[in-house]
Amino acid sequence: QGQLVESGGGLVQPGGSLSLSCTPSQSTFVIYSNYIMAWFRQAPGSEREFVAAVTWRNNKKYYSDSVRGRFTISRVAAENAVYLQMNDLKTEDKAVYYCECNPSGYSVYDESKYEYWGQGTQVTVSS
Hints:
Low-confidence stretches: none
Mean pLDDT: 95
Order of helices and strands: EEEEEEEEEEE
Largest sheet: 7 strands, mixed
Strand content: over 45%
Number of helices: 0
Helix content: under 10%
Number of strands: 11
Shape: globular
């Protein structure tokens, strides 16, 4: 925990948009080509769940069914950064969003493979 830093959370009305960013907390943290970067989220009283992931080498993207078509994950290798563009937000998207790093290069959806993450950023969707 703490190797990554998330930003961009906040309060938005249903139907609105937010963009989250994630970068390493220290310049010495290297995202190697076999790594997978992902966003997970955790709502109060619920387990952490997969949202989206991107492979660093070939930019392949994965989404949960609940966000596909509304959220877009992207990565900018030169910036060592991962982004999550969230559109058409719904009240059920309210959660703390975590950026996580999977150095194994496989098992995209298995959170136990993610060894690095940040403190999280709060996203609240409310009218």
